[in-house]
Amino acid sequence: MLELKNIDFHVPAANGEVNEIIDNLSLRLDTGKFTVITGPNGGGKSTLAKLIMGIEKPTAGRIYLDGQDITDLSIAERAKLGIGYGFQQPPRFKGLTVRRLLSLSHGSELPVDECCTYLTNVGLCSADYLNREVDTSLSGGEVKRIEIATLMARNLRLAIYDEPEAGIDLWSFTMLIKSFRSISQNRHESTIIISHQERIMQLADDIIVLADGKIKEMGPKDEIFPRLINQVNSGCSFRGGKESVKNG
Amino acid sequence: MAEMNKIDRSLLEAVADLHKVPEGAYNIRKNGESLGRSSSANIQIESKTDKPGIDIRVAPGTKNESLHIPVILTESGMHDMVYNDFYIGEDSDVLIVAGCGIHNCGDQTSQHDGIHTFHIGRGARVRYVEKHYGDGDGKGGRVLNPQTVVTMEENSHCEMEMIQIRGVDSTLRDTVATVGAGAKLVLTERLMTHGDQVAESNMTVTLDGKDAVTQVISRSIAKDDSRQVFHPCVIGNAPCRAHVQCDSIIMDHAQISSVPEIRANDSEAQLIHEAAIGKINGDQITKLMTFGMTEEEAEKVIVEGFLQ
User: Fold this and answer.
1) Which of A130, A169, B217, B233 is 20 to 30 Å from B10 by CA-CA measure?
2) What percent of chain A has pLDDT over 70?
3) Minimal-distance CA residue of chain A relative to B283
4) Residue A91: which of B287, B304, B306 has the nearest Cβ?
């Protein structure tokens, strides 16, 4: 179980004031859950993920994993406890092959067939990629899929994927999503996905809507998802809401 | 072969991956003298009569043979200069492993200047690996100034990998190559400097024949207060292709200067150069830390991968 208690993440703003990126946020995620965090851009989603991974440190509040206070633990210590984080924009590494990166993630040299399984699961033809360097010769979508594979190569207590769909074309995204939940649940006890994608939200047990650094809504998918869709449809004239009908 | 001690063996392992007497032809030079030599039926090694060094002749049509010619310096204050000429016969295919290791426990500078001249015959294929390495806890400098001159005839193919990983205080590397029609030269340089080390590398590749191709890849890491200067130059005198890529990681208080030059004297020459210097990206370190590595471990993985 992951528990966040009264988390603040404040940064100084240019005008001398303070930006409250995360504002007194508390939440509890039960083990085994597949949770999607969604909400508008700039609402604090990625920051929240980074706070859980330890990439950012909260200005106030505590974070607990299965009862253990991990607030003061480093990124590496949290990784060793079984937390993993898939970057929204993964870095590239000159000279590191896909196979080496997967092995580093896994913690030991991975046999070829195992690497191939992870790559195939994210829609990459393994024979073409195993010995390629994770450098600028790969497209954004390819790097993103390799990033997902690095998490799939680990047995994690908590896997956090930051917008896994970003940069992946819709055609292959549909393929990826079909297996995403089952693969993730095979490898990870609990999963958090930050996403704007309806299809990903539909995979969730629970949905959290984050805006202005606060939890706006949180609950089972069946409850939250229809409300979200309604809000989008009524708020945007291009979706066929009242305005567009009137003017059309 | 003369007796080898522990230092000799560790230097030979570092520069030539040699754990025992190599198979095939070899010449091992220690402190300016031959420690052991063996020619094979197709690869003849003879001492020069006019100056220090050896002539190596690979018979035409020789296939899948190797030649090891490592040099080690263990005497402080030694200045060794050697001229090695390689005559690679037509249509042969050989691996040449060179390299120099300096162990300096004394206070005087130990220096090795190797001048290697390659004459690569038509259709021949050569893979040349040269590693430079220094150790020993003396205050004396470890200096390596290699010069490499390559002449490639039609349709020959040559891959040269030149590596200096650590322990060399000062190096001035000069590489000059002329590439004939249909021939291809791949020059790879990997360099790491630390402490107060200084490294300068000049490369000039002249593409002289139709469809001559060269690829120059330089990857370097400069740590501490070390300094590096690169000047790769490719000249296209015919319809030819070249790609020069210099990538450096800069750390601490190091300085790197990269001055790639491409010069076309033929309208059908296609020459490209890329050069980049930058520090290790913070996201790369963070990413590896999310795998459970410390910052130091992450940096080591990035550096090793980059120089791989």
Assistant:
1) B217
2) 93
3) A91
4) B287
